[in-house]
Design brief:
Blueprint: E1 2-3, E2 6-7, H1 8-33, H2 42-62, H3 75-98, H4 107-132, E3 148-152, H5 156-167, E4 174-179, E5 189-190, E6 193-197, H6 202-208, E7 213-216, H7 223-234, E8 239-242, H8 264-268, H9 277-284, E9 288-292, H10 297-307, E10 313-318, H11 321-334, E11 339-344, H12 350-360, E12 364-367, H13 374-379, H14 381-401, E13 406-412, H15 421-437, E14 443-449, E15 451-452, H16 459-468, E16 473-475, E17 481-482, E18 484-485, H17 487-500, E19 506-509, E20 515-516, H18 517-527, E21 538-540, E22 559-562, E23 568-572, H19 578-595, H20 599-608, H21 621-627
Parallel strand pairs: 3-4, 3-7, 4-6, 7-8, 9-10, 9-12, 10-11, 12-13, 13-14, 14-19, 15-18, 16-21
Antiparallel strand pairs: 1-2, 5-6, 17-20, 19-23, 22-23
């Protein structure tokens, strides 16, 4: 129902405000003349009332006081009430002065009225919010519905979670209070809810207040603190939810809907990434961006994040029809304003790549297409060389031919002093980009980093499947370590490195501290609500072909230099002789086509990458060929 553009509920609120304004004016006269009956001043009150009502209600409407939702009323709404009331008092006094009747209505009445109106109008709204939130400031009661919650972290995130719960009765949660390790916060209150103790007190507090759920609201806390709090909370047997890391929270927004089960990423403690979005936007906005391997773990996330910078079009180049279909549909739904083009193609097929580049003329290419599974590539070394080396050579050379502005290739820490075919193939791909950059109008940039959490074929999905089957979890060696980062973080840094690159650089991403794989396995078992070695065993299977205990980030002869971004460094090494490299690659692939992967191929690889050490990785195929080779 609408009455002259005003909703029925708004009309009810305006009528309520009109009564409060009337009462405030009456009390102002009573206080001014010290008479509740307004002896001799009733006429003055009645003549001023219509003007006061008209001005105050009109300004309240103009300031938007009838558009807000009372159960979410806060300080900003109170400030708006103060502004509207102040302006209203000034307008009323000015109109009475212009009408020549200000002598009958002392200004002190409207000063008194200002204060009473603010109290009445603001108080009515806060009283309604208090009613919606359950009314009391005593929070020691136990919820009949078993929805008592304890919030871990009495900081900004915890306050925002509490505020949403209080403002949304549909959530049906009963907050009991907070715990926080900061002694300065002990026994302090937030919106009337007390900080009840330290995180080590969680078991006692859960029992005392019949807590049903624990909400961990410390997105920026280090991994060690999160692990300790998780273990302490698990002993209580109640449901535990946590906020994602600060870098994953959309625009820093903290909401109850963002709470989720603990994930392994939460225990690895990766700090959020700070991006220079202006520099990224400069080379992506209104540009044609092509991504090879667009359906892979890194490629698909690159598509999503690049699309946020409003490119003119995204060209998705992928040989897997299903993966291409998935990312294409996902992007069409998320970014209707961006032209999304799906191209089925193989980076090893020169005509296929050339056709795509000549048709769409990309300004930027992100080259993520690659084979990456070490043991599989040890069993299929020729395919690793073709896809990772020849595929990069084809795309990079054509990018130079068609004048692509920037070519960003994704590499791996396994390229450093490699003991396996996958790693050395990526090292050769790095050299190709360095060699082609000399004197080129295309800026060739390489980004080198370690393992990506939850990527296809990585250890975490494997552990999840093994846990679902009841174990055991298979770890190759008790002392094996790996660097890890999340997919979103790696992609953000890839785009940032692309913005920084001028051509020929190898950027190295800060991977933080290496993670012991056996500890990763134990954490994942714990996150599943089970006990390592009791509910699920961990067994050691031995290093796989081509596998090392530790991965590195710098090859022989490389030095590391800082950049303006704290998480991105540059590896500075010897200058690559591009023509000589490409001549050797021609010989390698002619030999590979004629005879397949033989000892001669390993010799040629060692000539290109002298630090290649297949014998140290236990490689079955490449080392077997190397052992029979003559140098």
């Amino acid at each position: 129902m609408m009455i002259q553009g005003i909703r029925f509920k708004q009309l009810i609120v305006m009528l309520s405000d009109a009564m409060l304004i009337t009462l405030s004016l009456y009390l102002s006269y009573a206080l001014r003349y010290s008479s509740i009956s307004l002896d001799g001043h009733m006429s003055s009150f009645l003549t001023s009332l219509p003007l006061v009502l008209a001005v105050r209600l009109a300004l309240f409407y103009a300031y938007g006081l009838y558009r807000g939702m009372w159960r979410f009323v806060g300080i900003r709404d109170l400030l708006t009430i103060v502004k509207a009331t102040t302006v209203g008092s000034g307008v009323i006094i000015a109109l009475l002065y212009l009408a020549g009747s200000h002598g009958e209505h002392p200004r002190s009445i409207f000063v008194i009225s200002w204060f009473i109106v603010v109290v009445f109008i603001g108080g009515s709204r806060f009283a309604y919010r208090l009613y919606q939130e359950g009314g009391g400031l005593v929070h020691d009661q136990v919820s009949e519905k078993g929805k008592n919650i304890l919030i871990v972290g009495a900081g900004r995130a915890g306050e925002m979670i509490l505020r949403e719960i209080l403002g949304n009765y549909r959530l049906s949660y009963t907050p009991v209070g907070f715990v926080d390790d900061d002694r300065a916060k002990r026994n302090r209150t937030i919106h009337g809810y007390r900080v009840l103790g330290h995180t080590r007190d969680i078991p006692r507090i859960v029992k005392q207040y019949a807590i049903a759920k624990i909400f961990i609201a410390i997105p920026s806390a280090p991994a060690r603190a999160k692990r300790r709090i998780l273990m302490t909370s698990r002993r209580t047997g109640v449901t535990i939810k946590t906020l994602p890391g600060a870098g994953e929270l959309l625009n820093g927004t903290v909401m109850v809907s963002a709470l989720r089960d603990f994930q392994i990423e939460d225990l690895l403690g990766r700090a959020s990434v700070t991006l220079d979005t202006a520099s990224i936007a400069e080379y992506l906005r209104n540009k044609t961006v092509m991504i090879t391997g667009a359906g892979g773990s890194i490629g698909s996330e690159l598509c999503r994040q690049a699309a946020q910078f409003s490119p003119k079009r995204l060209v998705l180049f992928e040989r897997s029809e299903f993966n291409l279909y998935q990312i294409h549909m996902n992007l069409m739904e998320l970014f209707p304003g961006v032209e999304i083009l799906a191209v089925i193609g193989d980076v090893m097929n020169r005509k296929n790549v050339e056709r795509a580049l000549s048709r769409y003329m990309p300004d930027v290419i992100f080259h993520t297409a690659a084979y990456k599974h070490v043991p599989l590539m040890e069993m299929n070394p020729a395919e690793a060389l073709k896809n990772n080396v020849l595929g990069t050579w084809v795309v990079a050379e054509l990018a130079k031919k068609f004048g692509v502005g920037k070519f960003v290739m994704v590499s791996t820490d396994k390229a450093v002093r490699s003991t396996n075919i996958m790693g050395v193939s990526k090292r050769i791909a790095e050299l190709i980009c360095e060699g082609l950059s000399e004197g080129s109008g295309t800026q060739f940039v390489t980004v080198r980093f370690g393992n990506v959490l939850n990527s296809v074929g990585s250890v975490i999905p494997l552990f999840k499947r093994q846990i679902a089957k009841g174990g055991p979890l298979t770890v190759t060696h008790p002392e094996i370590y790996r660097y890890f980062m999340t997919i979103p973080e790696s992609v953000q840094l890839i785009m940032q490195a692309g913005a920084m690159g001028k051509g020929g650089e190898i950027f190295i991403l800060d991977m933080g501290e290496p993670v012991k794989i056996v500890e990763l396995a134990r954490d994942m078992i714990t996150l599943s609500g089970l006990d390592p070695d009791e509910d699920i065993r961990i067994i050691f299977t031995g290093l796989r072909p081509g596998e090392k205990l530790y991965e590195e980030l710098l090859t022989d002869g490389e030095e590391i230099q800082a950049t303006l971004h704290e998480k991105i460094k540059v590896a500075v090494g010897d200058v690559v002789d591009g023509p000589a490299l490409l001549a050797r690659l021609n010989e390698l692939f002619l030999q590979l086509d004629r005879k397949g992967f033989t000892q001669e191929i390993v010799v040629k690889i060692k000539q290109i990458v002298p630090e290649f050490q297949p014998e140290n990785g236990g490689s079955q195929s490449s080392f077997q060929a190397l052992r029979t080779a003559s140098f």
